[in-house]
Amino acid sequence: MADQLRRITLARRPSGDPVPEDFALETGDLPNPGAGEVLVAVEHFSLDPYMRGRMDDARSYADPVPIGGTMTAQGVGRVVASNADGLSEGDRVTGMTGWASHAVLKASEARRIDDGVPPTSVLGVLGMPGFTGWYGLNDLGRPKAGETLVVAAATGPVGSMVGQLAKAAGLRTVAIAGGADKCALARDAFGFDAAIDHRAHDDARSLRAAIAEAAPDGVDIYFENVGGKVLEAVVPLMNTFGRIPVCGMVAWYGGVEESEDRLPMLWRSVLVKRMSVSGFIIADHWDRFDAFLSDVAPRVAKGEIDWREDVAEGLDHAPETFIRMLKGGNTGKQIMKI
Amino acid sequence: MADQLRRITLARRPSGDPVPEDFALETGDLPNPGAGEVLVAVEHFSLDPYMRGRMDDARSYADPVPIGGTMTAQGVGRVVASNADGLSEGDRVTGMTGWASHAVLKASEARRIDDGVPPTSVLGVLGMPGFTGWYGLNDLGRPKAGETLVVAAATGPVGSMVGQLAKAAGLRTVAIAGGADKCALARDAFGFDAAIDHRAHDDARSLRAAIAEAAPDGVDIYFENVGGKVLEAVVPLMNTFGRIPVCGMVAWYGGVEESEDRLPMLWRSVLVKRMSVSGFIIADHWDRFDAFLSDVAPRVAKGEIDWREDVAEGLDHAPETFIRMLKGGNTGKQIMKI
Description:
The structure is a homodimer.
Chain A: E1 5-10, E2 23-28, E3 37-46, H1 50-54, E4 75-82, E5 92-95, E6 102-106, E7 111-112, H2 128-141, E8 148-151, H3 157-168, E9 172-177, H4 180-188, E10 194-197, H5 204-214, E11 219-223, H6 228-234, E12 238-246, H7 263-272, E13 276-279, H8 289-301, E14 309-313, H9 318-326, E15 333-337
Parallel strand pairs in A: 8-9, 8-11, 9-10, 11-12, 12-13, 14-15
Antiparallel strand pairs in A: 1-2, 3-4, 3-6, 3-15, 4-5, 5-7
């Protein structure tokens, strides 16, 4: 057992945007799996915007990562020691490994991955991000053919799922993305009818004009994962009976830009346009995960639903990769390879 | 035909809070009912906060009142001339008469009122305001026994309906009202478990502390009809999976108080607490009106649901009464008697 456990811990709580000093790389002995547990050698783990929220000590839907605790993440790896029925050495599994080279998982919380499935796909298109897009669009967005959808972070694993599902359901789809390359990807790979580079628009008013041009019949569904300037731009364009599923607000995770009070503007739209705004956390809806896989996995296998990954290497590069991702520096699902 | 038509028109669009000069009293000849129409001598008409919105020229769910047009209102009166099958002179009917002594109504848009029903009740507890409270609470608030509800303008026709229905459904009910007298009325007549005088609290933080004390288990349903300081106070107290039906925001009809940007605060709660915010306009839901009457009219007849009216006299006093109502100067459903 020359192997050592290496893991990234939370060294201190960030003030605003995270910086490398907020994290620490720690090493130690490999843990031993207890009864009903397995030791997993992590091959890949996922980086997601929601992890920024776990770094704060605020009341939220999940407990914060404690200072000195391993950063939370879903990972994929091979079982290297098993103390559980039904899982053997060499099995590939996924579970909440954290940002770590190895993790002990309860067998009940590890899901085996079949050989035919690309291992990293369970972190993205067929995992929590894809499920988030599928659930929020279908159950809360209630898409109808002929309507118009807007989604930001449109080349990410949530946004690209939302856009492709909506397009297949007969909606006009408008992508918001950062930079010309991502806009091209949104149109070419993910089939968006229009793509708008938010970096080309300094303020909400300018961005709104661009969205209005791309959505001449108004916006029926705004799938919300960013908040900030995009939200401010879209709200006045919403149609009567519009729906806003809310699964994230990455623009506000590190703080809030200066602005006048935008709450009355939103509230007026909610009333006048009879809008539905629905916050959701995908972890509440695992009972729908089988339905998601039944619907989406065959479409992914047939190539009808495309996805992109951005794979960075080396556990010690996870903090800087995470920081870069929060600023939109990745293209596609951000994954760390150990 | 010594009678003249008298009506209150919109003289100009208000800037902020309406003032008497925004209205005009005009007189003219009585109109003649065309085929399928009746002429109604109005006995009472309703004043409601939504009318403030109709005075603006903004895009909204209903067309604005044009300059020189009669102010919109539901009224009750007697048919004095009929040119329609099924309605005769002397019948009491309700319909959209406007702020006027007489109105021509299509028979299809006039509803006959049976003799046993108190005429003004169709403007309040058994009319649009009561229906608004019933629909918003049941269909969007989805009340469950043991939960806690907060509603503002709690002695008004919407708030008092919401509070009594929620109490009967086994919820803890918290009233927000303006002044000690209304708070006493909320508790004594409408059965609220607690009543908070918003005038005793200068800012949202102070009001929030009072609501928190009255709602020790948090707030599951905030029935929104005021916006402003009350909304800001309640949002952080909302429980996970809380619901906010939004039917009005009277605090913001005349303008917005100074504040920092409260949108991120709301948005964070929507996400973290998986809240549902649902704007609604009761006019979209007339298909549920019979269900409302079947449920509520017998309970009103039995005295299980109480209501209060504030009847002012004289068409020419309608503007000042309306202005007073927008500032909370009335107690119970505001009605004008001609």
